[in-house]
Every structure is written in C-alpha cells, then in structure tokens.
C-alpha cells in the first residue's frame, strides 16, 4: 500500500511545498466565502499556496491553477451527552491537527466536545488519503502535512521580513536634555515655525520646536527646516506629530541619521503637555476609565436599547458581523454600505465575474474580499433562524436564555480587515478607531480599485462650492472641491437647556473644589437647525494670501452644495481634543429629522456686482530667499558649487548636477540628488542649464502655478488613477498633477479652474459662469446617473439631483472618545428600523436618532 501511495503522489510531488517562514497558511476560512472546517463540507487547503477554499470554491481554484493536491480539514462539534462529568476535558481525536485554529463560534469547553479529521485529497478524482499516515506517505509529503497542520494563524502579526532592519534604541534617549522653556504643544493646528507647511511636521524633543521635514522629489514633504534646526543646535531627536498614539510614535535621530526607538517617549512627550499615559488609560481594553461614568451608562443603555425585549431577525440582509476586538467601527460602516443598492450591485451582483477573474491570491484582492463579505451579509446563508427542535431543547435546558432570543453567530470580517488596514498605523491595530475616518478610508480604497469600472462611491460624491472673500479688497474667488461627507458643528451655545447646563457646570466646579461627588450630568440638547446654521456661516481662512493685495490678509470662506449626492453622509462633530491630546466626546443630543430639505443650500456661483480675485499664486517660500540672487543675472545664476561638486563626484554629469541644484533652490545636495533620480531618464538630462531672459514671458499659470517647475515627469500612477476614477480624463489629470507638484487636493482645484481647451465653447462658457449645475443634471439623465470614465468632462462623476432626503441609517458611538467605547448601527429596512450590534441583529423598538454620530440619508424621488 505504501508503494501504491508513493506512486500515486509522484506526478504531484513538484506542486507540494513545505510552508516557509513568512508563508501564511489559511486553514480557518475560505478565501471566497465564510466556510470553515466546521462547515458541512469542511475546508480545503492548497498544498502549494496554502490558501483555504470551501467545497463550493475549491473546484474553481483547481481549474484555474491546475493544483491537484489539497488538505481537507473537518471539525465535528457536538454537545456532550447528558450525564457527562462536569469539567471533563473534551474528547479530541488527532489532538494536534488543528493547533492554533481560530474557531467561528464561541465554545464553552465544558459543554462541547469535538473530533478533528484531516486527509489529503487529489483532484480531479477526489482520491482521499487519511492523515496522519507517516509510514505510507513520502517523507516530503509527511513533512509538508505536519507543517500545515501546525502552522500558526494567518492573521498573527508576521515577523519582519529578512530585508527589514530592526529599529534600534537611540543612544540619546536615556540622557536626552529637555529645555524648561514652558512650551506646550496643542493637539491640533500645528505649522512649521519657519514656513507655512502644515504637513510632515516634527517636534524636536529638546526645545519643543515644530518644524517641517525633508522635501521629496514627488512634491511631498517639507522644506527641511527640522534638519536645518539640528545643524544649528545639535538637538538630536524629533518625533513626527501625526504619528503619536498610545503605543508610541515615529522618532528620528538626526545625529544617527535613522529612525530610532525612544523607550522614554512618554516622559519626553509629557514635558510638552502630551500625556501618553493618560491616552493609554483611556483606551485600555477598549473602555474609558472615567471618575464619573454615569452619563456613559445612560448612553450605552439608550443606544443599545437595553432592557427591551428585542426580536431577533434572520435572513438576507440581516446577518451580523463578529467583533474581532474593537472592530465594531468597521462592522457598522460595512453594514450601512451593503444596504445601498450601488454597493450590492457592484460587489454581490458581479460576484461570479469577480471570483472568476480574481488573482491567484484572492485574499489580497479588494474586489474579491468586498464581494465575499457582501455575499455573506446578503445571501442569508449565515443568518438562519433556529430549528423548532433547537428552541424546544433550549427551553428544556435553560429557560432564561430564551428571553434574549436565539442569536446568530455572525460572519468574521478578519480577512477583509487585514487587507484594508494593511500599512495603516491605526486601522491595522486592535484599538478602537473613528468610524468616520474608516468610512473615508474605505471610500478611498473603493475609488482606487474602481478605475475603469463601475464605481459605487459615486453615490456619495458631491461638489462643494467654496466662496472665499478678501475682507480688505472685498473681492471673491469661487472654487469647487469633491467631498463625500458633510461635517456639522454642534454649537453648545445654541442648546435649548442652556440655563440647566450653566447650573450643572457651577455645581460641578463647586463639588470639585469641595471634593464632593459630582452632580448628575446634564446632556445638552441642540436643535438641528442650529447645527445647519453653524455649517453655513462664514469661517475665517487661516494664513489667507490675497492675490488682489499681493499680501496676507483677513479672509472668510462660505460653503454651499454645487451638487447634491444620491446618498448624503452627515457627521456630527461631537469630538474634540483636550489639552492632554485625548479625544473627548461632547455629551449632547440633536433632534435630527427623518426628512431633510437642503435645496436652499444650492450654490449660486458668481453674483452680479462681485469682483473676482486675480488668478495669481502666492510666492514660493524657501528657507533662504535666493530668488533675487538667482535671477539678478541671466548669464550666471547663483548656484551652490559645493553641492554641484558633491553630486558630480557620485558620477553624474556636471551640467545635470548644476540643473539639479538650481531647480531645487540651492537647498542642498540631498534634494538635488532626489531631483536627479526623478529626471535622469529625460533626453535633455545632461544638456547645459538654460534660463529664460528677463524679457521672455513667464510660463502660464495654467501650466505651472509655481513658475518654472522642476517636476515635468509623469506623476505617480496611483494619483492619476484616483482622479480618473472620479471621471476626469487622463490627460487633464496628468496636467493638473504636474501643475500642482502632485498634490491631489490642489490638483482638483486646478481642474475646476482650468477646463480642458479641447472642450466645446459652450461647456467652457458654462464653467466660467455657473458651477456646472446644468451639466450635472444632464449627466444624471443617464439611466445609471453616472458618466463613462472616458467621457470628455471637466468635472468628476456626480449623481446630482434634488436636495430632499430621507434618513435611512445611523451609526452611534458609546463612550468618552473615539479611542474607546463601542459602535452600533440602526438601518431602516422594509419600513422598519433594525439594530445591528456586532453579531446580534434585532428589530429596533426605539432607534436613538438624537444620539447618532454619523447619519445616512437617501434622496427622495422627485415624484
């Protein structure tokens, strides 16, 4: 028999591999469905790629790849028979077969016993070889099977790749000197102390200076002021401001010239008022350790409808999602998205096509994983009501459990979460996150993965018209930007119970001074009309540069809808930052209406009598103003010859080095080197530097708002894909990115202010006079209300229409901050409200419409 098995496996031996370090073995869940070893058909694990497949999908993988050998895993679970010894260890066959297997249900080891079964299956004949079978199988096959059976979970944190260097502790961390200068860093609103940069900012841990980082050839980064500060002061360590979390932050050592670890990070940051220990305490175990939890308890009860006998519902669209540990922010967003027809049609309606054309590793394909989760939620396959016999048995055993009703197990979003959070410092962690931020993150992924195909996020996309006015010259500028969500302020001063709030605050301060127990909290009640009014009011523009005055001035901005989306997402700005950097939630209730009419907020464009601001760009801000010197003589521009020689010694052509130093503003060899790398494939790379004479006309601002731009190479393909997925033509997108140093936000503004020259005069005239409302209406005369990606247009795809809406979903948050607590969502389906609380799905008795965090509205039909 041993010889027969050996001969049988000989043709397949080249396809059987032993898992290596770094290989992920998916033995707990199918790549296309939520089938597991506990499912009726078990799970098939490919012995070459180690992907798992349910019985329904393994044939597809065999046909696509020709891989014939799979390991079939099956777990048989049953309750212990009556009379079994209490506390006995569950009976288990082949004890090591499912080592580290993640179960799809929560078992009490004292109530259940299970048997594990494994075998090799050879396709297409389905020849089965039971395992273990050490004597009869070839040694390689035995080793491979044992490695698969004992492999750790595919979702455990992987060890760093061999080429990644381990970050070392800085030698300056222990003895770092910090100046006692009284500097306290606020939780927001930072900018470089030497220029206007608000991105890539670094906090020097010695003196508290906030300065920008290095400039990169793709236009991102900063002006190098943090490095310049080190050269002046020799203060060695800096932390990147937007990376600070309870777990740590990105630290760079200028003296060691590498990223480093700082074991004393908490102490060093607290010197500047950033309390990491307080942040950690507030997020520990996902709960907020507040001295006064009473308002939170009430909130938890109201939002979860505690104490009510809620009826569980089952079937298509009523499937719950398991909580993986602080993953409810993800679950609530996905439940709402897959209640929208566009997402259902894109991912579930195209299920077979997506699966058939999925890549060889479907676990890393966004469309496949979205289709998998959408099918799991909508098929009803994982949300079935209990059998009558099961209910009778439950009544006989434990009557008290019937009060809570039979609950489904829900599906696990583990595979999708691992994919969409990959590389993201927050979403890849096990901490609680902001559902609003995740919604925008997921929409961004949908955009990036929908280039050239139907884009379901079109339903959320709308245009905002921003009117900016110079307060001194009274001139205005109109611009449009794309958005997916409106953020409504919550003006506490407009609360209807203002006197009650003031009285509570006085009692609270008195109790605090006298060390007495605080009074019963009071929740602010704010009219929705006040929130809408606050949204429409003018706001100050920080660091406004007036092109009419050619100088900084006071400016105000108002926002209106240039188009209305099919689905309107509205976030209530309930969260703020305390001085300790911990996000805190305002305790308030807002009477959000079921029906909403925003028609009066439709943008009107340039009005009669208004004078536009000149279309000029502010001057370039450099660390040292070299503009006068460099242009004083067209024959001999000012060039740092020392930097030129450093680059030439690396082997680059001398003239190319001169051009690199000149075009990077004499800001050092490092920036010039980046320029060389970005331009070395160009045909005129080594030609002499030629400059326009003072009599030559300057380049048009439509081509280069920064004058002679050094970045005329092709922009990053990912940025191009994002713009084209919004409906902009590829050539126009490339021009916009080139003209704005590959800054996506500025590129969108550029597109709106520079319609394509090839378009008809009528469309150009309309773009000059109106904010394209008519164009958007024409777009939506299409049956699917979308534009083809290659259609000539100067605007993104939007589904414009009337601004009248009906509320259909609410995401609510319980807890003191976005870094802790819990999310649930309520969705209106078939005329009734349903509460989705992780895996539990029930009919809602009293949806908490006044305590929501994110509200979802759908447009009412015009009929």
Description:
Residues 168-276 form the UBP-type domain. This is Ubiquitin carboxyl-terminal hydrolase. Residues 772-788 have a biased composition (Polar residues). It is an enzyme of class 3 (hydrolase). Among the domains are: 5-80 and 95-158, 2-Layer Sandwich (Herpes Virus-1), CATH 3.30.40.10; 167-283, Herpes Virus-1 (2-Layer Sandwich), CATH 3.30.40; 314-387 and 406-458, Cathepsin B, Chain A; 462-577 and 596-601, Cathepsin B, Chain A, CATH 3.90.70; 641-679, Ubiquitin-associated (UBA) domain (Helicase, Ruva Protein, domain 3, Orthogonal Bundle). The protein is 27% helix and 16% strand. The chain contains 25 helices and 28 strands. α18 (641-648) crosses α19.
Shape, principal axes of CA atoms:
globular
The span between the termini is 76 Å
- Parts with pLDDT < 50 across at least 5 consecutive residues: 83-97, 104-109, 158-165, 281-297, 399-405, 622-635, 692-712, 757-793
CATH topology of the domain at 5-80 and 95-158: Herpes Virus-1
CATH class designation of the domain at 5-80 and 95-158 = Alpha Beta
**Biggest sheet layout:** 8 strands, mixed
What count of helical segments does DSSP give? 25
Beta strand %: 15-25%
- CATH superfamily name of the domain at 5-80 and 95-158? Zinc/RING finger domain, C3HC4 (zinc finger)
Number of strands: 28
What structural category do the secondary elements indicate?
alpha+beta
Helix content: 25-40%
Query: Radius of gyration over alpha carbons?
Result: 31 Å
Mean pLDDT: 79
CATH architecture grouping of the domain at 5-80 and 95-158: 2-Layer Sandwich
Binding site for Zn(2+): 192, 195, 212, 225
Region (Disordered): 757-801
Domain UBP-type: 168-276
Biased composition (Basic and acidic residues): 789-801
């Amino acid at each position: 028999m041993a010889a027969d098995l050996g001969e049988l496996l000989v043709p397949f031996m080249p396809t059987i591999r032993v898992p290596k370090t770094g290989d992920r073995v998916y033995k707990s869940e199918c790549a296309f469905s939520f089938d597991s070893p506990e499912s009726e058909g078990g799970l098939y694990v490919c012995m070459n790629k180690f992907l798992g497949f349910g019985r329904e999908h393994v044939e597809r993988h065999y046909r696509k790849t020709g891989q014939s050998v799979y390991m079939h895993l099956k777990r048989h679970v049953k309750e212990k028979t009556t009379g079994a010894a209490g506390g006995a260890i569950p009976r288990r066959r082949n004890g090591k077969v499912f080592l580290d297997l993640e179960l799809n249900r929560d078992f009490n080891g004292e109530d259940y016993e299970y048997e594990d079964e494994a075998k090799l299956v050879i396709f297409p004949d389905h020849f089965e070889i039971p395992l273990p079978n050490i004597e009869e199988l070839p040694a390689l096959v035995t080793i491979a099977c044992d490695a698969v059976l004992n492999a750790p979970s595919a979702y455990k944190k992987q060890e760093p790749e061999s080429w990644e260097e381990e970050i070392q502790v800085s030698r300056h961390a222990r003895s770092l000197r910090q100046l006692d200068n009284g500097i306290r860093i606020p939780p927001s609103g930072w900018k470089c102390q030497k220029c206007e940069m608000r991105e890539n900012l670094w906090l020097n841990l010695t003196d508290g200076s906030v300065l920008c980082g290095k400039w990169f050839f793709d236009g991102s980064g900063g002006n190098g002021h943090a490095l310049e500060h080190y050269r002046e002061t020799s203060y060695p360590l800096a932390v990147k401001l937007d990376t600070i979390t309870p777990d740590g932050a990105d630290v760079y050592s200028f003296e060691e010239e590498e990223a480093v670890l700082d074991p004393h990070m908490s102490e060093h940051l607290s010197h500047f008022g950033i309390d990491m220990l307080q942040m950690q305490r507030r997020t520990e175990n996902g709960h907020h350790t507040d001295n006064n939890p009473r308002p939170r308890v009430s909130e938890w009860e109201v939002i979860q409808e505690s104490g009510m006998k809620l009826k569980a519902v089952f079937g298509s669209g009523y499937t719950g999602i398991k909580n993986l540990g602080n993953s409810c922010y993800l679950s609530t967003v996905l439940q709402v998205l897959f209640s929208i027809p566009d997402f259902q049609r894109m991912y579930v309606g195209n299920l077979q096509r997506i699966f058939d054309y999925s890549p060889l590793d479907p676990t890393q394909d966004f469309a496949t994983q979205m289709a998998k989760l959408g099918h799991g939620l909508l098929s009803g396959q994982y949300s079935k009501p209990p059998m009558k016999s099961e209910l009778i048995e439950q009544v006989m055993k434990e009557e008290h459990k019937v009060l809570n009703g039979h609950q489904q197990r829900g599906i696990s979003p583990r595979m999708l979460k691992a994919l969409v959070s990959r590389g993201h410092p927050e979403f890849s962690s096990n901490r609680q996150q902001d559902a609003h931020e995740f919604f925008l993150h997921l929409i961004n992924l949908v955009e990036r993965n929908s280039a050239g195909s139907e884009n379901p996020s079109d339903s959320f996309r709308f245009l905002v018209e921003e009117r900016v006015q110079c307060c001194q010259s009274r001139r205005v500028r109109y611009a449009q930007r794309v958005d997916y969500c409106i953020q409504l302020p919550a003006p506490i001063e407009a609360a209807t119970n203002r006197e009650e709030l003031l009285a509570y605050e006085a009692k609270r301060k008195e109790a605090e001074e006298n060390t007495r127990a605080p009074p019963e909290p009071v929740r602010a009640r704010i009219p929705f009309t006040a929130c809408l009014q606050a949204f429409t009011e003018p706001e100050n523009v920080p660091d406004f540069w007036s092109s009419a005055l050619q100088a900084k001035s006071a400016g105000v901005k108002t926002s209106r809808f240039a188009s209305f989306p099919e689905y309107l997402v509205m976030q209530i700005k309930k969260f703020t930052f305390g001085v300790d950097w911990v996000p805190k939630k305002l305790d308030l209730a807002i009477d959000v209406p079921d029906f909403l009419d925003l028609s009066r907020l439709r943008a009107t464009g340039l009005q009669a009598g208004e004078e536009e601001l000149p279309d000029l760009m502010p001057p370039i801000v450099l660390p040292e103003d070299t503009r006068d010197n460099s242009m004083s003589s067209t024959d001999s521009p000012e060039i740092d010859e020392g930097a030129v020689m450093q680059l030439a010694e690396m082997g680059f052509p001398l003239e190319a080095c001169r051009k690199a130093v000149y075009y990077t503003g004499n800001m050092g060899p490092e920036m010039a080197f980046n320029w060389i790398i970005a331009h070395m494939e160009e045909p005129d790379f080594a030609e002499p530097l030629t400059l326009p004479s003072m009599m030559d006309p300057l380049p048009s601002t439509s081509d280069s708002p920064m004058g002679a731009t050094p970045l005329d190479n092709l922009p990053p393909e990912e940025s191009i894909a994002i713009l084209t997925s919004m409906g902009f033509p590829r050539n126009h997108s490339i021009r916009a990115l080139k003209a704005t140093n590959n800054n996506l936000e500025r590129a969108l503004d550029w597109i709106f202010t520079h319609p394509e020259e090839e378009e008809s005069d009528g469309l150009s005239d309309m773009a000059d006079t109106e904010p394209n409302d008519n164009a958007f209406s024409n777009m939506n005369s299409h049956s699917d209300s979308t534009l083809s990606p290659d259609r000539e247009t100067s605007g993104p795809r939007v589904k414009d229409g009337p601004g009248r809406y009906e509320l259909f979903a609410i995401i609510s948050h319980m807890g003191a901050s976005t870094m802790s607590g819990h999310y649930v969502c309520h969705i209106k389906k078939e005329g009734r409200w349903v509460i989705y609380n992780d895996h539990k799905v029930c009919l809602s008795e009293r949806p908490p419409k006044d305590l929501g965090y994110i509200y979802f509205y759908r447009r009412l039909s015009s009929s």
